[in-house]
Amino acid sequence: MKKSLIKSALFGSTLLFFGSCASHSAFTGNLNSQNTQVILSEKNYEVQDRVEGKANATYIFGIGGLSKKSLLESAKNEMYQNANLQGGSKALINETFSTKTSFFLFFWKHQVNASADVIEFTK
Asked: Which three-class secondary structure state does DSSP give residue 12?
């Protein structure tokens, strides 16, 4: 009886020590600050590419990294750089942003992903 209690306690503490948790959320929408409207009901564009941007921050005892807003801005900036919108009439559509938070005792990691489709107008 005593051995099984010790084994159970050891197993439980091992699970607690080596276990971790994570949460994930995603949102889509037009988060642009410009008030430009593009009507995509006509076949006057081609989807060129899918671009992504990522930003990470690590916190130990709650210290370090960037705020979530800064992570979002960093991920968006990387996505815009990867889109190479210079030259031609190109735009980003279907912007999606997702966040993932992983934590283990006193260690947290936040990751923000941004993705969008690049379109180019043909007319």
From this structure: helix
What is the strand order of the sheet 90-104 is part of?
A: 21-28, 90-104, 107-121, 45-60
**Is the pTM higher than 0.70?**
no
Report which of 119, 116, 98 is spatially closest to residue 39, judged by C-alpha positions. 119
Fill in the amino acid letter for 108: W
- List Cβ neighbours of 68 (8 Å cut-off, separation of 6 or more): 99, 110, 112
CA distances from 84 to 19, 29, 45, 78, 92 (A): 41, 21, 17, 10, 10
| pLDDT tens, position by position, 81-97 | 999 888 888 888 889 99
